[in-house]
From TrEMBL:
Topology in membrane: Multi-pass membrane protein
GO cellular component, one term: plasma membrane
Keyword Transmembrane: yes
The protein's name in its UniProt record: PKD domain-containing protein
Pfam families named in the record: PKD_4, Por_Secre_tail
Keyword tags: Membrane, Repeat, Transmembrane, Transmembrane helix
Keyword Transferase included in the entry's annotation: no
Domain PKD: 371-428, 472-514, 540-607, 763-839
Cell compartments where the protein resides: Membrane
Major localization class: membrane
CDD domains assigned to the protein according to its UniProt record, in alphabetical order: PKD
Superkingdom: Bacteria
Species: Fulvivirga marina
Length: 936
């Protein structure tokens, strides 16, 4: 059938084998259904329609023929019925242009169709049901609005294949999806029209499935929607969601909404492979709960902070770019995380981390002696408020702790203790300092010495000791007082006493920890005789009478004479005959009952008297070697015995009249003249050498004495850059500079030296601290502040009392003003400081009343060390009540005695005490004195 004009079919048109041709400009109006049935047996053609014009149908389209219904490539089919229409059949239906222009009703698609050019919705909507429309590469959906749209009550969809890389302004296939990126031809886009429950709280009734090719990607997209598709979701809440696993999990992409054009746009993406896109509520009711903790958290430098977003199995995006549930950070900053569940619902939280510096925990302490309190100086530092926790490391207690800034602690016994200081800031950052502190034991002072004689060299054997296991460097220093005004700092000194008597020797032992002990012992010095004798001149074979002039104040003496010729005597005044002339060294030894022995030696000349009376001085040779002389190194001095014609015997065995002396020493000569008379003389030759220091300091406001040794008949010349100053062996200077000395000996040799006098670079300066006003009877401490550290101290309190301690205590017994002075020395220079101390009365003194405070005048504790009996000698200035106690090293009282005394000797039985160190304390008038003793 050939249609060349407007043809009307008033009812359903069945085609079982007719070939219908609709020419251009021709319209076929079917007022009913069009059904394409299988070809009948007597038909000449397959049932088909070649449409180059226009087909209008008010009813359904059904193709059951097994052939294509429309064979054209540019004709239009218009469905314009006023009731619902359907497209169905079991054969393919392909439209070039399909137009809906219905006054009422919907077109229901009951089979898949293809539209090769335009699918336009002039009026009316199309329900896909469970079928799809294939737009292929060229099909385009047009004129879709809220009232004229494609929707689906089933799983129907529109299918479009991208022909080439599209423009971002192009709605692909008219489906309402705009893509930008690297998109190749062949990319398949499907538009579905059902709501997806798996995203957010459910999506709108539109979704796109995009199947990208190879490495293609979507960078930006625009999603168009219709109001009826919103399913009650407010437009302002819409967001684009994507899924890359076929709708199992969703990711919210967000987007910018243009409600005027019903388009939401998102950029900055990288979507690849198979992507599902839809719109859903950005504000999910089932969004995950995200809690990173307090908004602001402080943490300590070096710590790692673990941030946990919770919600296992969800997806995570941290501000650091990490995508795990838990991250670890170590830097200050603001950190945020977005957590998305499978539905694309997301929530976020933010936390600010502030790095706080770890405080520096440190402290100092000094070594103390047992019984003293250890003070700790806290030198810790850090930001914010700091708290401190001390553990003093005392294993004997659990209470050796403190929270003070600068605590004190008394340890029960000597030892090394590890002290722990924990310093914590207000931000919870802490540091621990461990340091060993030492509590030193007291040394045990002890020495032994034997009674001795006047003038003897007495050796003191130091037996002092200290436990060195606590401080390996615990050396000792010693201070001896020999009781005669002489002192020593040697370990084992020797000393000679010039007078007899009983001397109290005191030894103070100080460890390098500053712990000290004092012991006193008495030594008896016995009188030594003063030995001398005279003798008569004699010739050989004549008696020599010796007169013993030895003296001693008391006691008997024993004498031993050595006559120098191998004979001896014990007589007091012996008589001796020498058979040969010559010189004899005669020695007299005198011994007391205590073994004190002294001696005297004289040279006795026995003349021969063979040719004359040698006892007559006129017949004796005159021998004079002169005064003692100085000699320079490498030079010699000529000694002349004179008396020509005599015979000579020098101390070196030579027999010449003249001797050249090249070494220092004592030289003698014996001269025998022709009469056989003998005379003798000796001379001392000393080295004319000296060595001045290169540099010497001069004390502030003082003169300095420069000195070289004195040599008989030597010439001296001191000079400076200004000229000659002195011709003596000593020179007193008052200014700095360079000084030269020249010494010319009697032999003519010359010695020179130079010395530089400089100012004291660190002059000793006396300073001290003491209260200016005190009351009578107060114990006043004087605290030395001198600098640099003095070598010695000399205090004078202005009331006749002095002290040589560094920080002494003193009690003024009467009111008045006293000039207290301190003289300090660095070993060469001194400095003095004076301060006036005003001493007030505590109460009005009655006329003629004497305020007398109890003072110890003398004490002695002996023997020490001991085992058995311990004696205390004590003398007070008046009768007073006294308490005497003995304590062990732990401070436990072992014996207490209360008594009243002025002078007494008190004995204690310590034989039952264990070996060790003990303390004896004397309490009187609110004062105390402590002694330390050792029980063996």
């Amino acid at each position: 059938m050939l249609c060349t004009a407007l043809v009307h079919a008033q009812s359903t048109l069945y085609n079982e084998g007719a070939a219908i041709y609709i020419l251009p400009g021709t319209s076929l109006n079917i007022q009913g259904d069009y059904q394409n049935e299988p070809r009948s047996l007597n038909a000449n053609f397959d049932p088909q329609v070649t449409n180059v014009g226009e087909v209008r149908i008010t009813g359904d389209i059904l193709n059951n023929s097994g052939f294509e219904l429309f064979l054209d490539n540019n004709g239009m089919v218009i469905m314009n019925g006023s009731m619902d229409q359907a497209i169905s059949g079991n054969s393919q239906l392909t439209f070039y242009d399909l137009n809906l222009n219905k006054s009422a009703g919907t077109v229901n698609l009951q089979r898949n169709i293809s539209v090769e050019n335009n699918l336009s919705l002039s009026n009316g909507s199309l329900n896909l049901n469970n079928s799809f429309i294939d737009l292929g590469f060229s099909g385009v959906l047009e004129l879709e609005t809220d009232n004229n749209r494609i929707y689906s009550t089933g799983s129907g969809y529109l299918n479009y294949v991208v022909n080439s890389n599209p423009s971002f302004s192009e709605s692909l296939g008219g489906l309402g999806l705009y893509l930008e990126g690297d998109i190749s031809g062949g990319t398949i886009i499907q538009r579905l029209h059902t709501s997806t429950a798996s995203v957010s709280d459910g999506s709108i009734a539109r979704m796109y499935k995009v199947q990208l090719i190879g490495g293609d990607f979507i960078q930006s997209l625009k999603f168009s929607y219709l109001t009826p598709e919103l399913n009650g979701i407010a437009e302002s809440d819409l967001a684009i969601y994507s899924s890359s696993d076929n709708g199992t999990t969703w990711e919210k992409l967000g987007g910018i909404i243009n409600t005027a054009s019903n388009i939401i746009e998102v950029t900055g993406q990288n979507l690849t492979n198979a992507v599902w896109l839809t719109l859903a509520d950005a504000n999910c009711s089932s969004a995950p709960t995200v809690d990173l903790g307090e908004p602001v958290v402080n943490f300590c430098a070096g710590d790692n902070i673990v941030l946990d977003a919770g919600n296992p199995g969800n997806t995570y995006l941290w501000s650091t770019g990490e995508t795990t549930q838990i991250i670890s950070v170590s830097s200050s900053g603001t950190y945020s995380v977005v957590v998305s569940n499978q539905s694309g619902c997301e929530n976020s939280d933010t936390i600010q981390l502030i790095e706080r510096q770890i405080p520096s925990s440190s402290f100092t302490s000094a070594i103390v002696c047992i019984g003293e309190t250890t003070s700790f100086t806290n030198t810790s530092s850090g930001e914010g408020n700091l708290t401190h926790s001390w553990n003093f490391g005392d294993p004997m207690t659990d209470t050796d702790i403190s929270a003070q800034m600068n605590p004190q602690y008394e340890y029960p016994s000597p030892g090394k203790y590890t002290v722990e200081l924990t310093t914590e800031s207000e931000y919870g950052c802490s540091d621990i300092e461990l340091m060993d502190v030492y509590v030193a034991p007291y040394p045990i002072a002890a020495f032994s010495v034997n009674n001795a004689c006047m003038g003897e060299n007495v050796v003191f054997q130091n037996l002092s000791d200290v436990d060195s296991t606590i401080l390996s460097t615990n050396g000792l220093s010693f201070s001896w007082d020999f009781g005669d005004g002489k002192t020593s700092s040697l370990q084992n000194p020797s000393h000679s006493y010039l007078l007899e008597g009983v001397y109290t020797v005191s030894l103070e032992v100080v460890s390098n920890a500053g712990c000290s002990d004092v012991i006193q012992e008495q030594i008896q010095i016995y009188e030594a005789p003063v030995v001398d004798f005279d003798y008569t001149a004699a010739c050989a074979d004549e008696p020599v009478f010796f007169a013993n002039n030895t003296t001693i104040s008391s006691g008997g003496l024993n004498f031993t004479w050595d006559f120098g010729d191998g004979t001896s005597s014990s007589d007091i005044h012996p008589e001796k005959v020498y058979t040969n002339s010559g010189t004899y060294q005669v020695t007299l030894d005198a011994s007391t009952n205590f073994g004190c022995t002294k001696s005297a030696t004289h040279t006795v000349i026995i003349q021969s008297c063979e040719f004359g009376d040698c006892l007559n001085a006129e017949n004796q040779p005159m021998v004079d070697l002169g005064a003692d002389k100085g000699i320079c190194n490498g030079e010699s001095i000529s000694l002349d015995a004179g008396n020509l014609g005599s015979t000579y015997l020098w101390s070196d065995g030579s027999t010449n009249r003249i001797l050249n002396a090249v070494n220092s020493g004592t030289y003698w000569v014996e001269v025998t003249n022709a009469l056989g008379c003998l005379a003798r003389d000796e001379v001392e030759i000393v080295d004319l050498t000296f060595d001045l220091p290169d540099t010497v300091k001069i004390c502030v406001n003082s003169n300095l004495l420069l000195e070289v040794p004195f040599f008989e008949k030597a010439l001296y010349e001191w000079s400076s850059l200004s000229g000659v100053i002195s011709s003596q062996n000593v020179l007193e200077v008052s200014s700095i500079g360079q000084y030269f000395v020249t010494v010319e000996g009697s032999s003519g040799c010359i010695m020179k030296d130079t010395i530089n006098v400089i100012n004291d670079p660190k002059p000793i300066t006396a300073r001290f601290l003491a209260s200016s006003i005190v009351d009578v009877g107060d114990t006043l401490q004087f605290i030395d502040l001198s600098y640099p550290s003095p070598a010695s101290y000399e205090w004078s309190f202005g009331d006749g009392v002095s002290s040589f301690e560094s920080d002494p205590y003193h009690v003024y017994l009467t009111e008045g003003s006293y000039d207290a002075s301190l003289i300090v020395s660095d070993g060469q220079c001194n400095s003095t400081r004076i301060k006036t101390i005003t001493v007030r009365l505590l109460r009005q003194q009655v006329e003629d009343e004497v305020l007398l405070f109890t003072e110890i005048l003398k004490t002695g504790l002996y023997p020490n060390p001991t085992h058995g009996e311990l004696n205390l000698d004590i003398t007070l200035n008046k009768q007073s009540k006294v308490q005497i106690g003995i304590y062990d090293s732990w401070g436990r009282a072992l014996e207490i005695r209360d008594t009243s005394l002025e002078e007494a000797t008190i004995s204690f039985d310590v034989s039952t005490f264990s070996p060790g160190v003990y303390y004896l304390k004397v309490l009187f008038s609110g004062k105390s004195k402590v002694f330390r003793f050792v029980n063996l």
